[in-house]
Amino acid sequence: MTATGPTAAQSLALQVEDLHVSYGPKRAVDGVSLEINEGEIFGLLGPNGAGKTSTLSAIEGLLRPDSGSIRIGDVDAGANPTAAKARMGVQLQSTSFQSDLTIREIVRLYAGLYGVSLTRTGIDDLLADVHLSEEASKRFSQLSGGQQKRVSLFIATIHRPPMVLLDEPTAGLDPQARRQLWDRIERLRDIGRSILLTTHSMEEAQAVCHRVAIIDRGKLLTVDTPAGLIEKHKDDPRVRKAAHGQVTLEDVFIGLTGSELRD
Amino acid sequence: MSSQASAALGRPPTLSGILRALLQADLTVQLRNGRALVLTFLPPLALLYGLSAVKRGAQLGGPIVNVALALTLGIASIAILGYTASVVRDRELGVFQRLRVTPAPTWTIMVSRLSVQIVSMLAMAVVVLVAAAVIENVSLGPAAYLLTLLAVIFSSAVFLGVGQALVGLIKSADTVNAVGRLSYLPLFALGLFAHSTIFGTTFETIARWSPGGAVATLLAGAMRPAAWSGDTWWALLASVLYTVVFAGIGIRWFQWSTR
């Protein structure tokens, strides 16, 4: 299954081809291919252990794939990982920063790592833009969950990357914080960023994603717009069995990936 | 984002910029960490004072050896307890993974950390040498001073290698801390008797070629350049071998994440 965008003429922000990732004998990603257009928000849905984070980790350069190719814009990530990383902004699933640094110092560190030169006033102005002025002198561990996610997203995009990767960005947030983060993700899209996010939330996938791919056991099962997925699979017997009335995206997800519990 | 003074816009940053950012952050963390500061200065000063205060201190080899042992303890404390604790804590928190998704080459992350540890060791050495002048009446000439600081850098490689091996072989932070404390005995305490026959010559020989013993001999030799001997060269060679073995193990099996 290849996830190709609906407008082939558009430039590609990310292109993954036939990606394979293994942990010893266990195959975590099995031939995943996907393409994300510039300015597109692409959602990767899957149960626990489906291969979402492994796919993202391979794109981020955290693990070396067994085979396959990854291109960030026109940069081959395998041949030039440093240039690829410079074009990506990453928010990891469980991220943390040096516990003895303040938020202002963390921003200065990551700005430096991406080659962004910022004065102290510049940092404070940027923190004010994302309503984190009062937190500038606090440690990361002193922030609420929502503030931590905001800081993570802010740092992920401090170098204005064309491609942003978000691994379960709203996991563990209350509805207000989740909505605020959706707004920020949509604002990134509005200024031309492409976003690949993983999520367990069907609501999130429907609310912010242009297209959604469902992944299970390392394979991409289906790709389309949220409405297109429902339309495409509404007559599948497995989906019909999962549905209670009108078919929803969650019914499609359960129908295609099964209802058994995953670790 | 409009107020950003200058942004990379997808261009890779310079290596010097990356190292500057990492060093600044790691140095800030080191200076702000009270435990690290205590581990840097208290154990060697306490040992130096203790060895000069007790009668049997003289039996360990005299004032120069006492100062060398204090320096060895300081280096071992910083590397085996301080360095390992910071690495395993940041590994468990996911700090390394966050750094690894930036354009910073992975070696810069470790070079920055190790450089800050070496700076701490040099600062400790200067304080101990100043204290030694007061407590043990050991004063060094400029050449001996510089040679001693150079020997501190060499010695730091031995114990930072040990620390790297610990965090390479063991994932759990609690286990690293426990094993780090236990490893003090063979790695440092044995070296206390590298220049003493209190427990017989066989024990002295074993102690002399332990990591702590080799480092103490090297440091004592550096403080007396005129008396630099074959033993000092052998201690230097032993230190290099220990560094290669321990650092090799630590680099080969090190994992950036606990997952």
Description:
The complex is a heterodimer of chains A (263) and B (259). With 263 residues, chain A is α/β, with parallel strands linked by helices. Chain A has helices at residues 52-60, 81-86, 103-113, 120-129, 145-156, 175-190, 202-208, 226-233, 237-242, 249-257, and strands at residues 2-3, 12-23, 26-37, 41-45, 67-72, 75-76, 88-91, 163-167, 194-199, 211-216, 219-224. Chain A has a domain at 91-160. In chain A, the strands form two sheets. Chain A has a six-stranded mixed beta sheet, sandwiched between helices. Helices cover 75% and strands 0% of the residues of chain B. Chain B is built from ten helices and no strands. Classes of the chains: A alpha/beta (263), B mainly alpha (259).
Keywords for this entry:
heterodimer, A: 263 residues, alpha/beta, 5-stranded mixed sheet, 10 helices, B: 259 residues, mainly alpha, disordered N terminus
How many structurally independent domains of chain B?
1
Helix content of chain A: 25-40%
Biggest sheet features of chain A:
6 strands, mixed
Q: How many β-strand runs of chain A?
A: 11
- Estimate the global geometry of chain B from the Cα principal axes: globular
SSE pattern of chain B, N- to C-terminal: HHHHHHHHHH
Assign a percent range to the helix content of chain B: over 70%
**Could you state the oligomeric state of the chains shown?**
heterodimer
Total number of strands of chain B: 0
Uncertain segments of chain A are: none
Alpha-carbon distance between the two ends of chain A: 25 Å
How confident is the prediction overall: mean pLDDT of chain B?
Answer: 89
Strand content of chain A: 25-35%
